[in-house]
Design brief:
This protein has 163 residues and is mainly alpha-helical. It has nine helices and four strands. The longest helix is centred in the first third of the chain and has 18 residues, at 3-20.
């Protein structure tokens, strides 16, 4: 039996006990199972961004980036942005959490942060009003930085990034 199956069975037992006592678990099974497979102190933003439901994303982001569940006040604050496209909402959540003192104190390491200005060519994507989030390896970024301006402009044009 795999670990995920054990955690799933435990969740089902606890969920059933809560229902029998008139209560309800505050965290979904999917969220609990995704956290059991995560490496403590590390968050892969690219992997996290695969979540397409904005409420589930913000709940996961708080767990992975702040090592805690989202509080009701924060959840209500984010609710006004749930109708945004997932990419824009996720960018807002990651940027807000990343810039918080709590995130800094937790010393969680982020990897593959597709919303970081440091891992993209910068600027804005054409046809879209959101920051560029083109994942770029550090090695490729070093090559880009050494390019003459005309080559940088050509690379941006190919990627559809406004100057």
């Amino acid at each position: 039996m795999k670990d995920i199956d054990i955690y799933s069975a435990i969740y089902d037992i606890v969920d059933e006990n809560m229902k029998n006592s008139g209560g309800k678990l505050s965290t979904s099974k999917e969220l609990v199972l995704s956290t059991t497979m995560a490496e403590p102190g590390k968050v892969d933003i690219l992997k996290l961004s695969r979540e397409r439901n904005n409420e589930t994303f913000v709940r996961k982001a708080y767990i992975f980036m702040l090592n805690r569940q989202i509080d009701d006040t924060a959840l209500r604050a984010w609710k006004s942005q749930y109708k945004l496209p997932p990419e824009e909402f996720q960018h807002n959540v990651v940027a807000t959490i990343k810039d918080s003192e709590e995130f800094f104190k937790n010393q969680v390491k982020m990897y593959n942060n597709i919303y970081s200005e440091n891992t993209s060519f910068g600027g804005r994507l054409s046809n879209m009003g959101r920051p560029a989030g083109i994942p770029v390896s550090e090695r490729l970024l070093k090559v880009y930085r050494k390019m003459p301006p005309f080559m940088k402009n050509a690379a941006k044009k190919i990627l559809g990034v406004k100057r």
